[in-house]
Specification:
By secondary structure, this protein is an alpha+beta fold. About 65% of the residues lie in helices and about 10% in strands. Helix 1 crosses helix 3, helix 7 runs parallel beside helix 10 and helix 10 crosses helix 12. The chain is elongated and about 120 Å long.
Length: about 450
């Protein structure tokens, strides 16, 4: 029994090799953690010791031939469960980061066996040695430091800006497959590696595989970045088209106003004659026709022509849909938020509000939008609208009624709020939906 406990303790210490992988998992998503750094470190240490205890029991009661597979399986189950509880991000995105960490672990595992072959040429693969374990841990920290910048900048950008869920549900297969491949790409008898050129080929293959996978990750990032840029450009072009339409309407109105001013004295002559003859019904009808002819004017809400275009565009949609809309826009002459961000924000919250009103009785359809720059660097937006049915809100996020997962409109609003160090708040009470956005400009 004492010998079994000793062997289990020797095998358990191999779990130390996952310490750099835990650190890597938080590099791309550090800003999304739910706990402060000291609290997070405490949770990680507690989880690590819990895994150590679990691994000790596994190695004590199961044969050593299962050590590698059980080690990997337990670490994946326990750590990913705790990881996705601690980070406020889509599970599919976190799973890819987690599998990437496992991919790095697979390379440290291969490095471990390369060192094992050189130091113990006659040993079997499952004979544990402290010096090779230390080499594996050092290799792990080296790879984490080497990949720190691309993980923080590029992998971090991917999980925060690339939102094609179908891709995220498949792309994790690459690192997972290689991780499984690394488990079998090891010599079971070190002495066999000294036959012919096996050792030379093995040592060359490991770094070549690393370079190949790094290039695959680079191509994935470049393709995703190009797709996101294309989507942003299409969205920007759509808002520019709306802006151009509103500009042409405004230009046509200026010309029409000039004509009306020229003809106004003729209208007054006609009205004066009707008044003199007391033709009141005809006078009322004439006034209605005149008022109708000068309606539909694009309004100026602020100094930004793009924002004016968006507000006029959705106001026209509300009028066509029988939705009353009340706008209160109080902005300073110069606002620090970029026009494209402001238009995306306004467009998404107004579109959601309009969708929420469309299924109601016409007398119930109303939207109230307030945009207030309460201080030079603080912008507050609030929109209220009634809705029908039940809203699905999880962890402060509104789930879409059109597809699985979070609504893309409010997801874009959330990203813009985060870009400007702001907050998004969703509230619903008595069939009234309320969206509040605060931006620090």
């Amino acid at each position: 029994m004492i010998e079994a406990v000793r062997n289990a303790a020797l095998l358990t210490r191999n779990t130390l090799s996952i310490t750099p992988l835990i650190a890597f998992c938080f590099i791309p998503v550090y800003q999304d953690r739910k706990s402060s750094l000291p609290k997070l470190l405490g949770k990680v240490l507690a989880a690590f010791f819990a895994v150590e205890a679990a691994m000790f029991l596994v190695f004590l009661f199961f044969p050593s031939q299962s050590e590698t597979f059980l080690n990997m399986l337990l670490c994946i189950i326990i750590f990913f469960y705790l990881y996705q509880k601690e980070v406020d991000l889509e599970p599919s995105h976190l799973w890819f980061v987690f599998m990437t960490a496992c991919l790095i672990g697979s390379f440290t595992y291969l490095c471990y066996h390369v060192a094992h072959i050189f130091l113990y040429p006659d040993a079997m693969y499952d004979e544990p040695h402290l010096d090779t374990l230390l080499i594996q841990i050092a290799c792990g920290w080296f790879l984490v430091l080497l990949l720190f910048y691309p993980a923080k900048k590029h992998l971090g950008w991917l999980v925060h800006h690339f939102h094609e869920e179908q891709v995220w549900r498949l792309v994790w297969i690459l690192p997972a497959s290689f991780t499984l491949f690394a488990l079998v790409f090891v010599p079971y008898d070190n002495s066999l590696m000294y036959l012919g050129r096996f050792l030379e080929m093995y040592v060359i293959t490991v770094p070549m595989l690393f370079v190949m996978l790094f290039l695959i990750y680079t191509m994935f990032y470049l393709a995703a970045h190009a797709l996101v840029e294309q989507q942003n450009m299409l969205q920007k072009n759509a808002y520019l088209e709306i802006q151009a339409q509103q500009y042409h309407k405004l230009q046509a109105h200026v010309q029409e106003t000039s004509r009306l001013r020229h003809d106004f004295r003729h209208q007054l002559t006609v009205l004066a004659e009707m008044l003199k003859t007391q033709s009141y019904p005809e006078m009322e009808q004439y006034l209605k026709q005149y008022i109708s002819s000068v309606s539909g004017t694009p309004l100026l809400y602020c100094s930004s022509s793009a924002v004016n275009a968006i507000l006029n565009h959705y106001t026209a949609i509300c009028q066509a849909s029988g939705i009353s809309i009340q706008l209160s826009i109080r902005l300073k002459e110069r606002c620090s938020i970029e026009d494209i961000d402001f238009c995306v924000l306004l467009g998404n919250i107004l579109e959601n509000a309009i969708d929420g009103c469309r299924h109601l009785q016409e007398e119930q359809r109303h939207i109230t939008l307030t945009v207030l720059q309460s201080a030079e660097h603080i912008l507050v937006l609030q929109i209220r609208n009634p809705y029908e049915g039940t809203l699905l809100i999880q962890k402060g996020k509104l789930l879409s009624s059109k597809h699985e997962g979070e609504g893309q409109g409010l997801k874009s609003v959330q990203m813009i709020a985060e870009k400007y160090n702001g907050v998004l708040r969703l509230q619903h009470e008595k069939q009234m939906f309320n969206v509040k956005v605060l931006l620090n400009l």
